[in-house]
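Note to self: user wants both folds in one dump. Writing first protein now.
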Amino acid sequence: MTDRQLTEFMRATMPFAAVIGAEAVSADVGEVRVRVAWDESLCTTGGALHGGLLMGLADTAGGWCAFLNLPQGAAGTTTIESKTNFLRAVRAGSVEAVSRPLHAGRTVIVVDTELRDDDGRLVARVTQTQAVLAG
């Protein structure tokens, strides 16, 4: 699938991704990458991307990663816990979320997501737990 096809799929299955302007970069079982470009409408004081946007980006990438790691017969997944550490502001360019599974079990999936700016600097780190929904 091309980046454009992945983005269309992501936005069709998670409409909130379109609201925040998320674009898919890549997605497979081992890693999901989703990017958001800086835009004034997504900022807080001082022109920094809003923390809620960053958390939403991480949840989008992490949820997709969890979905790709669902056990056979599961109906879906939902976030039950999310822990974010913010490390720096993003005032230009874009931020990319890179999600990788830490644990893919029968009842929960734990995902680690790093958010990095265009220079590769760590912006935030998110660990989330996703419940596996029965089929």
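First done. Writing the second protein, which came from a different request thread.
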Amino acid sequence: MLKLSACLPMMFGNLDFYDRFQAAKDAGLEYAEFWGWSGLDLDKLKNTVDKAGIKIATACIDTVTPEVAGGFNKKRLLTRDSEAFDAFYKA
């Protein structure tokens, strides 16, 4: 069954990132998602999610290592210069 999740970078922009989990729960959602976890306080994130009673549906990967980021960026679909874009749209 399809379940809705709040994309926290796009919602509740007036709130601190960690406060957005409770806002999503208060809005009636059971799941939340966000982009990139590097730079986040993972202990605080876990405590915040547990306290709000919400589940993380997805968390996109990111990296602060330029070599890894370069390889990842070549494979994503969202840019015209990615390897995957040509393979997907020209197939």
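Dump finished. Worth passing along: The radius of gyration is 16 Å.
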